[in-house]
Amino acid sequence: MAPRLQLEKAAWRWTETVPPEAVAQEHIEAAYRVRLEPCQRGACRRNCRGNPNCLVGIGEHVWLGEIDENSFHNIDDPNCERRKKNAFVGLTNLGATCYVNTFLQMWFLNLELRQALYLCPSACRDRVPKDTDYEPQSICEHLQYLFALLQNSKRRYIDPSGFVKALGLDTGQQQDAQEFSKLFMSLLEDTLSKQKNPDVRNIVQKQFCGEYAYVTVCNQCGRESKLVSKFYELELNIQGHKQLADCITEFLKEEKLEGDNRYFCETCQSKQNATRKIRLLSLPCTLNLQLMRFVFDRQTGHKKKLNTYIGFSELLDMEPFMEQKNGVYVYELSAVLIHRGVSAYSGHYIAHVKDPQTGEWYKFNDEDIEKMEGKKLQLGIEEDLEPSKSQTRKPKCGKGTHCSRNAYMLVYRLQAREKSLTVEVPAFLQELVERDNCKFEEWCNEMAEMRKQSVARGKIKHEEVKELYQRLPAEAGSPYDFISLEWLQKWLDESTPPKPIDNTACLCSHGKLHPDKISLMKRISEYVADFFYRRYGGGPRLNVKALCKDCVVERCRVLRLKNQLNEDYKAVTNLLKTTVKGNDGFWVGKASLRSWRQLALEQLNEQDEDAEHSNGKMNGNAQNKDESNEEKREEEEELNFNEDIVCPHGDLCICENERRVVSKEAWEKLKQYFPKAPEFPNNKECCSQCKILEREGEENEALHKMMASEQKTSLQNLFHDKCRPCLGSWPQETDELYIVSQFFVEEWRKFVRRPTRCSPVSSIANSVLLCPHGGLMFTFASMTKEDSKQAWLFHVIKHLPVPLHSIALIWPSEWERIQKLFVVDHVIKITRTQAAGANPESICYTSEPQLCPECREGLLCQQQRDLREYTQATVYVHKVVDNKKVMKDSAPELNVSSSEAEEEREENKPEGEQDPDFNQANGGTKRQKLSHQSYITYQKQGIRRSTRHRKVRGEKALLVSANQTLKELKIQIMHAFSVAPFDQNLSLDGKILSDDTATLGSLGVIPESVILLKADEPIADYAAMDDVMQGERDGEGLGLGWWPRIRDGKVENGDCDVSQSLAAGYSE
Predict the structure, then answer these.
(1) 726 is catalytic
(2) Contacts of 144 (CB under 8 A, 6+ apart)
(3) Angle between helices 688-714 and 742-753 (to 10 degrees)
(4) From CA 145, how far away is CA 157, in angstroms rounded?
(5) Are the C-beta atoms of residues 58 and 47 closer than 8 Å to each other?
(6) Whether 810 contacts 718, CB under 8 Å
(7) Which entry of 27, 73, 339, 348 is annotated as an active-site residue?
(8) What digits encode the pLDDT tens for the residues 146-177?
(9) DSSP state letters, 321-336
(10) CB–CB of 405/329 below 8 Å?
(11) What positions does the domain USP occupy (predicted)?
């Protein structure tokens, strides 16, 4: 079938020869495409939207082909959720809990730990209530129940939400897996330490706890100091290493303590050079090796992942690393924990764990568990899932060795000589598991029954649809109905039951089927339509009587005018060249004549566009379309033809330059396209009201020019801003000055410069300078400070259209002339008084009206409050490199050689020169050099910074708010200067800013403040930093204050319990 656009043109091709008044029924049916040939199955690959008789490709293939019972329902086979024989049970990922699932599976396959947990006493060990669901009360009970389900459940996977909720973990935020392992093991050890059974009480120490010693040897006297410490995992640095053995060697390497890091020897009673190293004293049965893939990047202030390959073997001989060589220290690999992804803040955790009973390897990936072939560990596919930024190729691995760039934890177990344990589930736990298995079987039976019922209903509908589809096409000459294609597709879609038929969205303004909606409709037989309306209801029905003749006739007229438009445009152009004689012509706007063809085309398309959008899409939101079109028409009202010569009174405008006379023939052709255009014969008089207003306007302009000239002559110095008085240095020739607002002066100057464009200023509103009580809001001292005047005027005069930046002083002689020219509501005067022969310091200044103390105090409080409650303001952070050069760069306002003119020139420099790093040696004035002591004095005195701030080298502007914390400011500084928050030393006016939780408002940081930043030098040797942190964790050097403490079965970090600690993860 032809494309839709071709079908559209063919449906209306008859309009080229048929005028609107001759439209007949055959033309209406052609417009609605009633007589188009229907498409046959196999001939059309997809449905023809332009042919209402094409019923192919609307979803019927599902019902006409072979019956697939699975298509009659959307219920998965419940047997897919059943555990397979000799398979392990998975764990559901609750959002971002894959790291928890990996550790649970690894601990479950530690048979000794599982057996010890089963021996823990439980509150319901003797009797399990049958009428209520089992809810574990402790961490041990949660683990017992989870391990029992993992061992004997019939489900393919189970839900660990109870265990995760008990720990207080955020299921939507991925935590640090290594930190979680440490915290949970500490919690489990503390919980089991209260058990009476020694096999249970000491299981964590037996399985995971080893001992090493920090040994420090004095180089002077040879004294050896030993500090023994327990460990549950060895944290190995992998930077710069390729093999696991190299990582262990570096962990145990000797460290020299020299210089500032010398060791205080008890024997020598002084600091001496020394050596320090770690000696392994004993190893646990299960050796956890943490590969430190996630390290802190001091340059960015964030964690990053080291995607480097590390090689490791399946057998690990630890004897060369032990202090005592007489033991058995051969370990075999039992688990590899993997982190997929290149970022430390995202990715996915999986675990490869070896079954201790069969020796087979399994990959645990949340709900999915995959058995490795041939009892071999296979890591190859895990290394190719995420691209790495480095181009390092994967090294070759020999037999019994592996290498990985994603492994973050290796678990080795002591090579066992005896047979593996057989762990049985206790009776009370087995009863709980059987109860859960019964619920699972009930669910499976329920799902199977629902599938069976859906299949039965589907078969019935299949026969019904098959029969109705055969009778769906309307035969030639038989009654028919139009129905929505969208509704038909939903009827054929078994997953979405159809709603009642709604045809209101395809109706025209006459309540019938709109011709433009025919591409969204299908013509079906009356028999099938009767069935649809009986079964599903709805309406209105669109049969042969719903074909709208009015719409077809109007479309015929529009299409014919479109075809005739080009010819009429040429004819009108030629007619405009002829001169109109007599009174037979008509006035037409020149702007309308220039664009009349475009206006006509838009107007002809307007009806089509309104018809297309006013009803909206089928089952769409028609109201929004109506509103948008209404707004569009309002915007385009000013573009209507010939309305450009209509005056505001609805008559012919008086400006003859905007219109011209056209002939009667040209006007008649234009009227065909614009029947509603305003008509003005060339003998039509212009608007009388506009003529009167024009004369009045000319008279007013002359009057305004005269007023402006008179006022400029009377107040010439005020207009040119010359010889103005100043309060800072009171003029000797007078003892009184008058005050007006600068806003009045600026508006008056605008009028004098452009009297024909600006309105005259007739009055001086000095009330805006007074408080509600009629008193002044400022003192004489504050008037002499420009900044103070700006501040209070911004707060007081809030109702003015523009802000006032200052006040204007008026000479007494000028004030006399001002009172004659303007109406003054309040007189504001400043008077200087001094007794004869008195000391000049005894001069007194008084104001009229007097100061209002109450409002003045309130104004000052408001100013201080605004300085502490800003929402978005600029502060400047200046990075100090050398204290001796602080003032050189950070206090340009103290420069004795700078001037206002120089500041203006610098502000107007090109954009490149405004950069603080742009060639400041050229054209920059030298600044006053201050010593370090002078810098401290400057900081303590808090010298006012110029309101016209100039950014200098090493300084950056930041947008802040008063309620943000100092910590948030440090993060902004980190992004601006690449200095980590803990390397930042901030000060403001000599005061150190150290409280990260305090807000900037409470710390006294106000807009335009300059904060000094002193950056600590970062540690270049990251390995040395890791050693320091390792010593801190193990109770040496920096103390134990940060490490979680065990108290009453909870892991605490300060005042946080285990829930908060685990939820916090590694965020800090």
Answers:
(1) no
(2) 117, 118, 120, 122, 136, 429
(3) 120
(4) 14
(5) yes
(6) yes
(7) 348
(8) 999 999 999 999 999 989 898 888 888 878 88
(9) GBS--SS--EEEEEEE
(10) no
(11) 89-415
- Check if 348 is active-site: yes
DSSP state of 976: H
**What integer pLDDT is reported at residue 1017 of this predicted model?**
64
Query: Does the pTM of the predicted model rise above 0.70?
Result: no
Instruction: Please compute the mean of the pLDDT values over residues 263-288 and round it to a whole number.
Output: 91
Please, is 368 exposed, middle or buried when counting C-beta atoms within 10 Å of its C-beta (0-12, 13-18, 19+)?
exposed
- Nearest Cα neighbor of 435 from 134, 731, 168 is 134
Q: Secondary structure of 652-695 in the HEC alphabet?
A: ECCCHHHEEEECHHHHHHHHHHCCCCCCCECCCCCCHHHHHHHH
Residues 807, 789: contact at Cβ < 8 Å?
A: yes
Cα separation of 909 and 924, whole Å?
12
pLDDT classification of 960: cutoffs 50, 70, 90 = very high
What would you report as the CA-atom Rg of the chain, rounded to the nearest whole angstrom?
Answer: 45
Range list of β-strands (E), 748-853: 763-764, 807-810, 823-824, 829-833, 844-848
Q: Is the model more confident about 921 or about 218?
A: 218
- Cα–Cα distances (Å) from 1003 to 527, 891, 955, in that order, read 82, 21, 20
Angle between helices 596-614 and 622-635 (to 10 degrees): 160
Q: Quote the pLDDT of residue 988.
A: 92
Count how many residues are written for the chain: 1068
- Using CA atoms in the order 787, 790, 796, 797, what is the torsion angle rounded to 10 degrees? 180
Tell me which DSSP letter residue 393 carries: P
Half-sphere exposure of 178 (CA within 13 A, CB side): 23
Q: What is the pLDDT of residues 754-783, one digit of tens each?
A: 988 888 888 988 888 888 888 887 777 777
The Cβ of residue 934 has, within 10 Å, a number of other Cβ atoms equal to 16
Amino acid 855: pLDDT? 82
The number of beta carbons lying within 10 Å of the beta carbon of residue 205 is: 15
Is residue 258 within 8 A of residue 940, CB to CB? The reply is no
What single letter denotes the amino acid at residue 85? K
- Calculate the CA 316 to chain-centre distance: 48
SS3 770: strand
Distances (CA, A) of 270 to 145, 223, 224, 1039, 1068: 58, 13, 15, 22, 37
Helix orientation angle between 664-673 and 549-576, rounded to the nearest 10 degrees = 150
Percent of the chain topping pLDDT 90: 21
Provide the pairing of β-strand 210-218 with 274-282.
antiparallel
Helix axes 853-868, 786-796, angle to 10 degrees: 90
Mean pLDDT confidence for 1000-1014: 89
Contact assessment for residue 334 and residue 411, using Cβ atoms and an 8 Å cutoff:
yes
- Cβ contact 877:976 at 8 Å: yes
Q: 984-988 and 315-317: which strand pairing?
A: unpaired
Question: Does residue 340 surpass a pLDDT of 60?
Answer: yes
Phi/psi of residue 590, nearest 5 degrees: -65, -35
- b or e along 493-522 (b: 16 or more beta carbons within 10 Å of the residue's beta carbon)? ebeeebeebbbebbbbeeebbbbbbbbbbb
For residue 577, what are the CA distances in angstroms to 591, 595, 661, 663? 17, 17, 11, 10
Catalytic residue among 48, 98, 247, 771: 98
Residue 625's pLDDT is 43
Q: How many other β-carbons are positioned within 10 Å of the β-carbon of residue 781?
A: 10
Measured in degrees and rounded to the nearest 5, phi and psi for residue 617 equal -75, 165
Cβ–Cβ < 8 Å for 354, 334: yes
Using CA atoms, how far apart are residues 1039 and 1028, in angstroms rounded to an integer?
Answer: 11
Helices (H), 485-525: 485-492
